[in-house]
Amino acid sequence: MPSPSPQNRQGSDRNGGDSQPESGKNLPNKLVIVTDDVVAAPEPVSSLQRFRVHVPKPDTQLLLGERAKGTPAGVPTFGYTGASLQTVGNLFIDVKEDIVIQNQGFTLMQTQDLWQQYSTSLMELSSPAAVKVVGGQVFLGATDSVQAPSLRVNNGADLSPNTGNDLTPAMAHLAAVGSGWDIGLSVLSLVATAVFFSPLDVKDTNSWIKTAETAWSTGKKLYDLKKKFDPPTPKKDVNIYGKEGVNIMTPKKVSLTAEDSVKVFASWGVTISSAASSTMMAVQGVKCFGGLKASLEGGTYADVKAGVALGVSCLRGKLKLKALEIEIGSHDPKWTQLATTKIKVKALQEIAFDSKQTFKVNTGKSTKVEAKENFEVKADKAVRIQVGSYCIEVKTDGIKIGKGDNGTPSDPIITVKGRNIILKSSGMHAKVQDSSVQLGNRSTYVNIVDSGNVMVKGNLIKLG
After folding, report:
1. Do strands 138-142 and 238-242 pair parallel, antiparallel, or not at all (unpaired)?
2. What is the pLDDT of residue 23?
3. Would you state the pLDDT for residue 13?
4. Where are the domains of the chain?
């Protein structure tokens, strides 16, 4: 039996047994099947399925209501309860004004090919819980050559994607610059390690530790340098590019964590600053190296400490230690700081102490000065030596030896003045001059002169 025409079908629907007014009628509980040649009215289906359209070529289906469950016969299984759309061709939506898509369940949008989103204005992605951007490789870029939206005409034979934003050239340039500097700095670091290397002292445990650490770090540097010349391999990384800068800001904290390494590089300068404090820590070691200059400065206080050994050296120039007051060593232990037991000063040629006023050496027990050849003490005005109550004073006008304080004899026993020598004790004295020798005191004495005369003065003179 031939199918009724659309007009007859519509008329039969209107003239059915339902006598209710138009405003009070329910929607017909019928499923409409559209085929290539005819339109037939199948058997009634569930009242929950209100509308379904099927276009065979290209295969397209639109379903409103309950999903199609394969009944009645000839109706394919399709869709999910609600609204479902399926096509083997394209989906084109052209809206002149606004679009709002909202739901209270989850939202899933996925594709097996390219995904692009463009806007000539602000594009925002936000969530009060969290926002994840995950990919085999992730690029975030800011540049002045951003691809704008390319709107399609409202009809056409094919759809094609927009031209993508390519950050590869800019990133490749920066990667090449960074790699060149990185290789140069790595080579410079190896040269510095060789220049500043201290030979192993087999008797010093600290030297063994330092040599082992230097050998390990040098091997690591050589291994890393070799990797820089290896062919590039696909990376699973995140790339952030900003033509005029990259800003990361938070009122709390920023964490950079890596199981391998973290590297910060800039062609002109890297600054790490804090309103409170900045800390650099490492399990093996921390190294600060400058090709021309390295500075450790503190506005009020700077401290350099080591648990076992601390080395400060200048291998090819001058080491300067300057301060208003300098203290080396400690008598008393303080907390973990042990007392200083020995201080050595070594030089191949000369050790010089230069003070504008006073040079003082004070020891609790003894002071020992030795010289294999010459020992020289020189002063423009005076040299004083105090041992107990006795002292020796050497001045430009003479020498005095005797009892006194602060190196100055108050009652000299021996006095050398000019070419004269005077020995004095308990009122007796001996005086040696250029042309005479006098023994005795002021009232009784013997005087021998270079002419051979002997003068004796006294109350009683005995001979033999």
Report:
1. parallel
2. 40
3. 41
4. 6-18+25-87, 168-229
Residue 427, by phi and psi: left (phi above 0), alpha (psi -120 to 50) or beta?
A: left
Question: What local confidence, expressed as pLDDT, does residue 99 receive?
Answer: 92
Whether this prediction's pTM lies above 0.70 is answered by no
Could you give the CA distance from residue 284 to residue 319 in angstroms, rounded to a whole number?
27
Half-sphere exposure of 421 (CA within 13 A, CB side): 4
Mean per-residue pLDDT, 315-329: 84
Average pLDDT in the chain? 76
pLDDT digits (tens, 9 = 90+) for 181-208: 666 666 666 666 666 666 656 566 666 6
- Asked if 380 and 363 count as a contact pair (C-beta separation under 8 A), the reply is no
Tokens of 152: 């399609």
Which residues are paired to 334 by β-bridges?
Answer: 337
Burial label for 298, CB within 10 Å (0-12, 13-18, 19+), is: exposed
Confidence of residue 101 (pLDDT cuts 50, 70, 90): very high
- Torsion angle of C-alpha atoms 95, 98, 99, 100, degrees rounded to 10: -170
- Give the contacts of 241 (CB within 8 A, at least 6 positions apart): 139, 140, 141, 142, 143, 167, 170, 171, 174
Crossing angle of the two packed helices 168-195 and 205-229, in degrees rounded to 10: 150
Contact 416, 409 (CB under 8 A): no
Residue 32 CB burial class (10 angstroms; 0-12, 13-18, ≥19): middle
